[in-house]
Amino acid sequence: MTARHDRPLTDTTWARIATRLIAPLGDVEACRWIALRHAHDHIHLVVTLTRQDGRIPEMHGNWYRMRDTCDRIEAELGVAYTRSQ
To answer: Which of 5, 15, 30, 48 gives a 20 to 30 Å CA spacing to 55?
Structure first.
């Protein structure tokens, strides 16, 4: 999510970003996930498609919601805007 000229983000910051995208704080029944960081400028997310309470998460329009969340996070952190033009 960051460009090569952006400052490196800490593991804690990446964890907060992943949480905002996947499992809002306080939702103990959210889908389980892991974040894999193998470079300084991005993470990969692996997410189960079943919540802990057995329900299937709402996926309709998910890409757009996540993209909007990424836009807000990039603005808040002051890092390069990564949306494809």
So the answer is: 15
